[in-house]
Amino acid sequence: MTNVTASRQWNAEQLEDWLIERVANIQELPPDDVDPDMPFSSLGLDSVDVMDLIVELDELLGIEIESTIIWDYPTIRLLSGYLADLLSGTHALK
């Protein structure tokens, strides 16, 4: 992918901030009202919202993310940490 954003190096904190902003936007909430330790389902996201986030992350990071990743990493904080590790080569892609 030649997207400039995809070539950017992301860490867990940056990914968490990005996800908080996106969830806040989807739910029309202030970012401070989005708890990164709450499950996505508790944040009011339905399956369509979650799939849209996964597609956006695919494009943002330039990798293909399995749609079932939310089952293994059900919170913003867990998902951000996993993706940061994945991007740094610490984890193998699921």
Automatic annotation (TrEMBL):
Keywords: Phosphopantetheine, Phosphoprotein. PROSITE patterns: CARRIER, PHOSPHOPANTETHEINE. The keyword Transferase does not apply. The keyword Phosphoprotein applies. Residues 10-87 form the Carrier domain. InterPro entries: ACP-like_sf, PKS_PP-bd, PP-bd_ACP, Ppantetheine_attach_site. This is Acyl carrier protein. The lineage of its organism: Bacteria, Pseudomonadati, Pseudomonadota, Betaproteobacteria, Burkholderiales.
